[in-house]
Amino acid sequence: MPEDAGQLLGIMSSISDLFGGKLPIQDLYGPEGSHIYNNMMGDDRAEVDDFIRIAKGHPGPLLELAAGNGRTTLPLLEAGFQVTGLDSSPHMLQRLADKLREPKWEKYTGKLDTVESDMSDFSLGRKYGLVVLGMGTVWMLDESQRASLFRCVREHLTDDGRFLVTLPELPALSEDGTPLETRHVFIGQDSTTPVLCIMTEYFDQQIGKRLMCILAQRPENGAVGESTIFAHWNHLLYPAMLEKEVESAGLRVISQTEATATRVTTIVDRGRRRWVFEIGR
């Protein structure tokens, strides 16, 4: 069950009320949600080309945090890097293992090690020339967890190594703190059949959080069948905050560049920017 389950906000709260509060709420990165997330992202290269461009000047080995379904991992393997993929969700790591059995990727099996661990508290006993964290995943952590993440990264980074992290920024968030909600509709796929997905993001500056929800509805004989809400809470973080926090951990921001737009980000990133931070010791 996701953090703050039952405390839905915005249109998802209204939809839950419409169904009498009986719609099941599951973690977006759980057994079923991970299938939908995997299908939604597909082979989108959000930040991947930016990571590879920077990484070429800092040959591995490479540690990918929140490796998930391998959206970033597999292109990094294809680019010639030896990768350690770390993720706290066994379900997401299973999606990655499934992909490594596909003919296109099976030849890279020996170049990838996976670790099931928390990205804010890990100890792998080795140093890496590159550590990457994509898709604004740093939003998943609160301030104390981020401090622990940055300490762990520093401990695992070589002296001339680089930490690459992406961070979305929403200029549309109003100065008076009024919540902002975005909505997207797409056809997704769970573990069995196609499903109609309504994705919402609710940004609340007052509590410093973003709630991402996907209402998945399975069609059955021309009618709406089983419906489930997949949800996950994130913690808002702004570029200036990120820079101060990494400096507190003994790291420094070397560059901040805007990420190359992709299929998914072109649709989802309306009203926001996506930055790639290059961080060193």
TrEMBL record:
Presence of the UniProt keyword Methyltransferase in the record: yes
**Keywords assigned by UniProt, alphabetized:** Methyltransferase, Transferase
> Where does the record place the Methyltransferase domain?
63-161
The biological processes this protein is annotated with in GO are: methylation
Q: Which organism is it from?
A: Sphaerisporangium aureirubrum
Protein name per UniProt? Daptide-type RiPP biosynthesis methyltransferase
Gene it is expressed from: mpaM
Q: Does the keyword Methyltransferase apply?
A: yes
Give GO MF terms, alphabetically: methyltransferase activity
Classify the source by domain of life: Bacteria
Stored InterPro entries = Daptide_MTase, Methyltransf_25, SAM-dependent_MTases_sf
